[in-house]
Amino acid sequence: MIDTILVWSCIYCYALATLLLLTGFIFRKDKLLTLAGYLILPGFAAHTALFIMRWARTGWFPANGELENALTGGWFAVGLTVYLLARNRTLSGVALFTIPATLLMMGFGVMKAPVPLPMAASLKSSWLLIHVLFAQLAFGAYFIATGCGILYLLKDRRLRRTDIAGFYERFPRLEVIDELMFKFIIYGFITNAIEAAAGSIWAKSLWGAYWGWDPLEVWALVSWLLYGLSIHLRVTLGWRGRRLAWLTIFLLGAVIIAFWGVGFMVENSRHLFGVVS
Fold first, then answer.
1. I need a surface site. Which of 6, 98, 196, 210 has the fewest CB within 10 A?
2. What's the pLDDT score for residue 212?
3. At residue 88, what are phi and psi to the nearest 5 degrees?
4. How many other CB atoms are found less than 10 A from the CB of residue 205?
5. Can you say whether residue 28 is alpha, beta or left, with left for phi > 0 and alpha for psi between -120 and 50 degrees?
6. Which residue would you say has higher pLDDT here, 69 or 153?
7. What is the pLDDT of residue 263?
8. How many CB atoms lie within 10 A of CB 52?
9. Taken in order 40, 46, 52, 54, is the CA torsion positive or negative?
10. 214: alpha, beta or left? (left if phi > 0; alpha if psi -120 to 50)
11. What is the DSSP secondary structure assignment for residue 241, as one 8-state letter?
12. Average pLDDT score over residue span 6-32
């Protein structure tokens, strides 16, 4: 019962915050964005309590099943959003993506696997915990980078139409948004690399090989290389601004496929959620 209350408290707070964010951006109402920020905090508090309770109940890091995968990935995405808002309220525009995306992920998780499942004994390893932890950190960082990309494009579009930013004056300068977007891409890329290395070490002890060409492994490698390409384009060819923002938004699709899509398309992957025996 407590789990249910926390889940739906979190979902309702994020849903209302999403409504206020969308309305505030579309109709350019500063007060609605401020209210959305206040709603994100209790939602994140419920999210954190649910995260801790799931961990305590199952005895393992919450990453077993669609809901726990969404719960943990969303927690890092919203946590990084709250961190940015605490440091600089003018970055509230990043929440325009991270909050609705987390809301949809959690809604999908509730529909698919609401009941907590124990982790299979064969999967309980400290390396698995490190692997999942850094995977979710990378997931959250890529979400923040995408939010920065969307905010950049919205403000840039306004400035291209007129020299006056108007409503978008409340957000940081384009150069600041661009730099923050790139920093989170780098952060996600590095944590993604640590996640892959930890996963390989764990796979060696569990399956006898560091790499097995599992569909999820392959797609995760592809998404990591694509983000590496974006860093290369920025550093060597000077890609920044609108080009980097659009690239960042499109690249998130590779991460979503790695986290969610492979499970729909492939049935023989070793990376299955919801394993109980």
1. 210
2. 83
3. -155, 105
4. 10
5. left
6. 153
7. 63
8. 12
9. negative
10. beta
11. T
12. 94
Two structure tokens written together for 67? 């809901």
**DSSP code at position 172:** P
What residue type is assigned to position 227 of the chain?
A: Y
Q: How far apart are CA 252 and CA 246, in angstroms?
A: 10
Which region holds residue 209: left if phi is over 0, alpha if psi is between -120 and 50, else beta? Answer: beta
Sign of CA dihedral 64, 273, 66, 44: positive
Confidence (pLDDT) at 261: 66
Calculate the CA dihedral of residues 52, 57, 63, 69 and round it to 10 degrees: -70
Q: What is the pTM of this model?
A: 0.91
Q: Angle, nearest 10°, between helix axes 242-256 and 126-161?
A: 150
Q: How far apart are CA 93 and CA 172, in angstroms?
A: 10
More confident residue, 164 or 93: 93
What span, in angstroms and rounded, lies between the C-alpha atoms of 142 and 136? 10
User: Is residue 79 pLDDT above 80, yes or no?
Assistant: yes
The kind and range of the H/E element at 218 are: helix 215-237
Instruction: Considering only residues 231 and 160, tell me which one the structure prediction assigns the higher pLDDT.
Output: 231
Q: How far is CA 135 from CA 166, 189, 199, 220, in A?
A: 38, 10, 10, 10
Q: Would you say residue 172 has pLDDT above 90?
A: yes
Res. 274 pLDDT band, cuts 50 70 90: very low
The three-state DSSP-derived secondary structure of 172-201 is CCHHHHHHHHHHHHHHHHHHHHHHHHHHHH
The one-letter code for the residue type at 105 is M
Tokens 């929440």 sit on residue: 95
CA 242 – CA 268 distance, rounded (Å): 39
Only one residue has tokens 């980097």, namely 244
- Maximum separation of any 2 CA atoms in the chain, in Å: 62
Mean pLDDT of the chain: 88
DSSP element (H, E) containing 34 = helix 30-58
